[in-house]
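task queued by scheduler; priority normal; single chain, no ligands, no partner chains; default sampling; output format set to structure tokens
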Amino acid sequence: EFITGYQKDITDFIDSYDFTDCIVYLDPPYKDTTGYFDSLDIVPIIDKLKGRVPLFVSYNEDLTEDTVEFGKRTKGNMNGVKKTEVVREILNCFGKG
């Protein structure tokens, strides 16, 4: 068995990939935690994938009733500076349907 990873624009990838024998894990920027998040709307991405493949989305809000909250953490950035804001860490689970 092996794992293949892809790093490419997800909107281009979804329509062209055969998701047979796959699971998908999405880890988009958490809502309201970055200045560049506004350019990505994850809901249409989730809508295209759910029902086609087991889908797991790491996010800071509940996107489905099937969630696991891992805890809360203070927001930090790449230079290690922590902020006082607390962010929920949630794994949203969408079955294949």
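post-processing summary
- The two ends are 24 Å apart (CA to CA).
- Strands lie at 24-26, 55-59, 67-76, 82-94.
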